Amino acid sequence: MFKRIANCLSIAAICTGFVLGSAFSLPTDASAAPPAKSLLLFDCGPGTAAPGYTGLLPTTSYSPSLGYGFEDVSKVTSRDRGAPDALRGDFCMPAGTQFKADLPNGDYQITVISGDNIASSSTGVKAEGVAIAALSSAAGQFDQKSFPVTITDGQLNLEFTGAVPRVNAVEISRIFKYDFGPGAIESGYIQVLESTAYSSERGYGFADTTKVSSRDRATSDPLRSDFTMPSGTSFLADVPNGDYQVRIISGDAIAGNSVDIKAEGLTKAAALTTAAGSYSDVTFTVSVIDSQLNVDIVGTVPRINALIATKLPNRVQGTVPNVYIAGDSTVQTYNSSFYPEAGWGQKIADYFTSSVKFTNRAIGGRSSKSFAVEGRLDAILNEIKPNDYLFIQFGHNDASSIPERHTDPYTTYKQYLNMYIDGANQRQAIPVLVTPVGRRSYDANGNFKNDFPDYVTAMKQVASERNVKLIDLNSKSIQYYNSIGVEATKSIFLWLEPGAYPNFPNGVQDNTHFQENGAIQIARLVTDGIREMNLAIISFIK
């Protein structure tokens, strides 16, 4: 993710799935399948297809030219309940016929959603003629099951069983499996040699093969017998955007091994140490937002034997919208040991009913860069659901001279903001940019001023370029400070007299952070911005 940040602006429109056209053709081997054709998303039923999904109507008949559909549409009926959302509000009822999809041979994960907003549901699933899953749900509930399927004949065949089987959605995602080293290849895996250089045509490989060597210990285990040693270079794999479960095997039959594993620039496993003949086998999740998985194996003699990347199913809309907040210390939630210090993200829920949830992930000292590099954006993207929100306020620490925090307003700052926007959009969530809240900074005439003019301008540019909602909290807060005057702003910011609060026995004069009253007022301004933008959650404002 971070090695490709310069490319963020070029991927602005990428969405979570591959929308099929009127016809598609696929290579016969999954190892040659481009990433877009490694993820197929079908929304079953007569209603409008969910964003990023291909509508699968009860009349969609399979043909080789189309490449997917029902074998016998006379045996398929459907309903559209209109709720709870576009994906689950409608469904097909294929009784006694198969759904077919032409696919390259290989391993896939299939996810099926089944349910009905007004009736109970019970649906069995057969894949390639084998019963593989059973889904059941009460009225208004939905079941979801995922299962692996190996395709050997160029076609996936799904049969849905039960008295009235209901199918809301089908997700088909390729499982990416790589066997590293020059020895025998494990069945179903793609071989990666030390000379396998990444190219967009191949879709996987090492960034710099001059930094890769390999060994084969000639044991009976083809997956663990051989390995590559990428020292100072990344393994890259083009994959559809989404959240992945990644499994990595690392070790050596005749030597000890100690490695750290990074994915998308984030440390996912540290100090994995094994003796000769033993192997570390670690699994972790990672969010991909730039259509490429980046993995680094770090160590004195780093070894990688195998990598398996399985896309996690797309998440469905929650029962209530969740507003995630990414930001700095002016936004964060403080515990009682800091009272009365508070951030606006701590107080904004007070302006809303319980029909909307706020999840404040803001933390002090973070910039748009460091928040992402530390994995905090990744954590949000691993949770956020369709129709949730991601509010993004950064700028205070981006303006810092500290290298780990600093971004340039018109280059890297904009690129990181685009990273947040891409991640939210790909998960069908709604990004909202919030310009950095004003400080208690004023001129000789007592007029408050903007300490972050370039960052505010750059954020507004991104909002315009990406057609993203923006709350100009910088302007709103400065107008508010001017309306109450310099002296009164001491009750907004963290200006405390000695002895007034046990947590600040010596008092404090802080022109950046807020006390509780200030956090309440700034949260009010953010709420005003939500109302002005006419976001759907305005119906939950008290």
Automatic annotation (TrEMBL):
Q: Which UniProt keywords apply?
A: Hydrolase, Signal
Q: Which InterPro entries match?
A: AGA-YXIM_GBD (IPR049033), Galactose-bd-like_sf (IPR008979), GDSL (IPR001087), RhgT-like (IPR037459), SGNH_hydro_sf (IPR036514)
Source organism (scientific name): Paenibacillus sedimenti
Superkingdom of source: Bacteria
**PANTHER family annotated for this entry?**
PUTATIVE (AFU_ORTHOLOGUE AFUA_2G17250)-RELATED, RHAMNOGALACTURONAN ACETYLESTERASE
* Signal peptide segment: 1-32
Q: Can you tell me which family this protein belongs to? A: Belongs to the 'GDSL' lipolytic enzyme family.
| The protein's name in its UniProt record | GDSL family lipase
Q: Which GO terms describe its molecular function?
A: hydrolase activity, acting on ester bonds
* SUPFAM superfamilies given in the database record: Galactose-binding domain-like, SGNH hydrolase
The record places domain Beta-agarase/YXIM esterase-like galactose-binding at 42-160, 176-296
Does the keyword section mention rRNA-binding?
A: no
CDD domains found in the cross-reference section: Rhamnogalacturan_acetylesterase_like
A Pfam family cross-referenced in the UniProt record is Lipase_GDSL
